[in-house]
């Protein structure tokens, strides 16, 4: 390759790299997005983002959120359910960070307008026990590296003026809508192998059901609706974080994603999530005012 060809190739590479990041939101746009997040008012939609643009924007958003919200207490895997992926015109999961104060106790009463575009969904948390989780390749590997499984109703906030226009990269850009959630009683991971095997099967087979105060079904799904096994969300997350030089730490809480459709809260609504077929899992509840 001669000097001219080398220069042209280098310029093409720079142009390609620039195009990948071309739609990453500017610092001013990110500051505006986070200001709307803080004020709980709808922000302008991030549009025409590539996956790289979404990740770049999320990193900027997380820098500003950390200044306001402090410590990161874990991560959320989002769009882990094919039905939810379809809603956002994508075929892969996304992730965001969870901050101190986002996880409330079961039975909490929350303002129905807890965000700009508030929703609720049936979810589940796990708590990291060992850094070995970052090398997990199977649900069994994940189970060996966690010490708690926690029933969870997530309360995400899609934040933007037109949520139906969000795609996967747009969801990434808004930190996957992390806002609040209500956690139930933790279940300890059993010590014995046979019990662990039974737990793995129960997690895949369980029926997660959302009901209102009268017992009427609001939504739900099966454990395997999340990537064929809910702990596969953690396998995916470990690899996704590693690509950005990040890792889960002992004590981190990991949100696995939605077993149910995303539903809008209403004042006076009380929601209970039950995990039928998962022995020892107590219901988790939230009430909206």
Structure characterization notes:
The chain is α+β, with helices and mostly antiparallel strands and about 290 residues long. It is built from 8 helices and 13 strands. The protein has helices at about 5-20, 25-40, 50-70, 80-85, 140-145, 170-175, 195-205, 230-240, and strands at about 70-80, 95-100, 105, 110, 120-130, 145-155, 180-185, 185-190, 205-210, 215-220, 255, 270-275, 285-289. The strands form 2 sheets. Strands 1, 2, 3, 5, 6, 7, 8 and 11 form an 8-stranded mixed β-sheet that branches. The longest helix has 19 residues, at about 5-20. It is globular, with a radius of gyration of 20 Å.
Total DSSP E strands: 13
Structural class: alpha+beta
Topology order in helix (H) and strand (E) letters:
HHHEHEEEEHEHEEHEEHEEE
Q: Please indicate the percent range of residues in DSSP E strands (runs of 2 or more).
A: 15-25%
Q: What is the makeup of the main sheet? A: 8 strands, mixed
Total helical elements: 8
Distance between the termini: 69 Å
* Overall morphology: globular
Q: If you compute it from the alpha carbons, what radius of gyration comes out, rounded to the nearest whole angstrom?
A: 20 Å
Stretches where pLDDT is under 50 for at least 5 consecutive residues are 2-22
Overall mean pLDDT: 92
The share of residues in helices is 25-40%
């Amino acid at each position: 390759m001669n000097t001219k060809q080398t220069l042209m190739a280098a310029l093409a590479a720079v142009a390609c790299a620039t195009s990948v990041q071309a739609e990453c939101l500017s610092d001013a746009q990110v500051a505006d997005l986070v200001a709307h997040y803080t004020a709980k008012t709808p922000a302008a939609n991030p549009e025409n983002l590539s996956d790289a643009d979404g990740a770049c924007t999320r990193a900027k958003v997380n820098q500003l959120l950390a200044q306001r919200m402090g410590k990161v207490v874990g991560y959320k895997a989002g769009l882990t359910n094919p039905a939810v992926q379809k809603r956002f015109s994508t075929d892969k999961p996304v992730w965001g960070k969870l901050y101190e104060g986002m996880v409330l106790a079961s039975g909490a009463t929350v303002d129905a307008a807890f965000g700009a575009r508030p929703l609720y969904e049936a979810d589940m948390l796990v708590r990291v026990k060992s850094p070995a989780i970052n090398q997990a390749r199977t649900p069994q590997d994940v189970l060996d590296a966690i010490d708690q499984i926690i029933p969870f109703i997530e309360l995400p906030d899609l934040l933007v003026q037109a949520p139906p226009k969000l795609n996967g990269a747009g969801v990434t850009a808004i930190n996957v809508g992390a806002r609040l959630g209500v956690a139930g009683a933790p279940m300890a991971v059993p010590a014995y192998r046979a019990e662990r095997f039974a737990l793995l099967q129960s997690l895949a087979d369980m029926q997660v059901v959302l009901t209102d105060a009268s017992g009427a079904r609001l939504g739900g799904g099966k454990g395997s609706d999340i990537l064929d096994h809910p702990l596969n969300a953690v396998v995916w997350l470990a690899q996704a974080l590693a690509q950005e030089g990040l890792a889960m730490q002992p004590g981190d809480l990991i949100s696995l994603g939605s077993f149910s459709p995303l539903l809008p809260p209403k004042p006076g609504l009380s929601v209970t999530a039950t995990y039928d077929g998962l022995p020892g899992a107590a219901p988790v509840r939230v009430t909206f005012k």
